[in-house]
Each structure stands twice: as C-alpha cells, then as structure tokens.
Design goal:
The structure is a single chain. Helices cover 47% and strands 10% of the residues. By secondary structure, it is mainly alpha-helical. It folds into two domains: 130 residues, 2-Layer Sandwich (Alpha-Beta Plaits); 63 residues. The strands form three sheets. A three-stranded antiparallel β-sheet has the order 2-5-7. The termini are far apart.
C-alpha cells in the first residue's frame, strides 16, 4: 500500500512539473545587465593617438617588462620581450613585446596583472566571452589580445586607477568632494581679490593720469603768462615812442583865422 501511495505521489509531482512553465533561460537571451565592475576577458592596448603618432600607426603600449607574468598567482601568463629600440613617437629608447600568451583555463580574475602594469598596456573587458568547445580556444595569443581592444568594451579599471585606489592617503568621496569645494572657493576668492586689486590699480592709474594732466596744464599756463607779460612790456615803449598826429582844423577854426 505504501508503495502505491509513493508511486502516485511521485506521478503527481511529475505531472505538476510537466505543466509548469520553464524557469530556465537560454544563454544570452535576454542579455543580462552586468554590474559596473564586471570583468571577464583581457585585451592589450595601443598608445593613444596624438600629434607625434607615426604614420605607421600608434605603438604598442606593452614594453615587455614581464611584471604581469611574475605576479600572476596562477602562472598563466607568458611574456617574451623583444629587443629595445628607439620609439618613433617620443624619440626615446623603450622596450617592445615579441610574444604574449594568456591561458584563460586557469585564470582567477584577480586583476593583479592589470594593477602592476606600468604603462596600462593590459586591461580587462566587461563583456562576456562566447562559449567554446575546445580548451585551445581559451588560450589568448598576442593577436587575439590586441583584437579584443576593438572587439570588446574595456572595464573601468587601469593600473593607474587601481594603484590610486590603494593609496593610504586617498580621501573618501565625501572628503574629496569637500576638498574640491574648498579649493574651488579658495580659487574664487583669489580671483575676486585679483579683480579687486586690478580695479584699485586701474583707479589709481586714472587718478595719477588726471593729476599729471592737471599739472601739465598748470605748467603750460604758468609758462604762457610770463610770455604775455613780456610781450605787453615790449609793446608799451613802442606805443609811447610813436608821434601823435595833429588835430584836423574844422570850419569854425578857418573863419577865426580870416577875421
């Protein structure tokens, strides 16, 4: 009897699950929303394009220092450095990369290789990788890593950012915001004082120019007055020395002479 009850109960559970809608989803459909710090694969990058970029294209950022290979806890990175040469971009001697392999079969995604890179040449990607059927497809070569720079979107972190985050003197976001606000207020105050000083200097320059103009006018007037006095004094003796013309005789005067 117990066997029959258990059998019927099992059949009921099986029928119940047979008509229940599926709870699984196909890979990538729909696409899952990834967190901001999600990282899955790797990419090697080139130097940013600038004014000094040669016509042949930007240089590889990797200098073959092998720091990523030495720090990897899983020992999945192999770096083969090439001979050093003169950079056509900077004109200085630098290292170059000959070969680079990264085995994703044993990667633990610690991101230490990104953190120690002095040139930010290796970054992690925030897009998931496609499933593969062979382990050999998880071996990332130099060409695949450089292709990932354009095929996959890079994650937020670089070596410089990760090192900056671990700085013991680094401020919290609130402290950094307060510091930035304080620096902005100080800069505004400095600009205000500079503008006030410039206005005072301009006002002083105007007053000085007005005083100089007034002094020049007074000096010109003082020089002109003695000249006028001297001219008047010179003209006065000339007027006194000039003969006085006799008065003209009128009609009445002529009659008196005749009588």
């Amino acid at each position: 009897m117990k066997t029959l009850v258990y059998s019927l109960r099992s059949m009921g559970i099986a029928l119940k699950n047979a008509i229940r809608p599926p709870t699984t989803e196909g890979f990538g459909h729909p696409e899952r929303v990834r967190p901001e710090r999600y990282r899955n694969s790797f990419a090697l990058v080139y130097e940013p394009v600038g004014e000094n970029t040669p016509e042949s294209g930007p240089e590889e950022a990797c200098i073959g220092c092998r720091k990523c290979e030495l720090i990897c806890p899983s020992a999945i990175i192999t770096v083969k450095a090439a001979k050093k040469g003169v950079s056509p971009t900077t004109g200085k001697k630098r290292g170059y990369l000959d070969d680079y392999t990264l085995d994703m079969n044993a990667c633990i995604f610690c991101e230490l290789c990104v953190q120690v890179c002095p040139t930010d040449a290796i970054v992690m990607c925030k897009e998931p990788t496609e499933p593969v059927f062979f382990r050999e497809d998880l071996l990332l070569t130099k060409d695949k890593l450089y292709a990932n720079e354009h095929l996959r979107k890079p994650a937020w972190a670089t070596g410089a950012k990760l090192v900056d985050m671990q700085d013991p003197n680094r401020l919290s976001p609130e402290q950094q915001a307060a510091k930035d606000a304080q620096m902005a207020a100080a800069a505004a105050k400095k600009a205000e004082l500079a503008a006030q000083k410039a206005a005072e200097e301009a006002k002083a320059a105007e007053e000085k120019a007005a005083e100089e103009a007034k002094a020049a006018e007074e000096k010109a007037a003082g020089e002109a007055k003695p000249a006028e006095v001297a001219a008047a004094e010179e003209a006065k003796p000339a007027e006194e020395a000039a003969p006085t013309a006799p008065p003209e005789a009128g009609a009445d005067g002529a009659e008196e002479v005749r009588s």
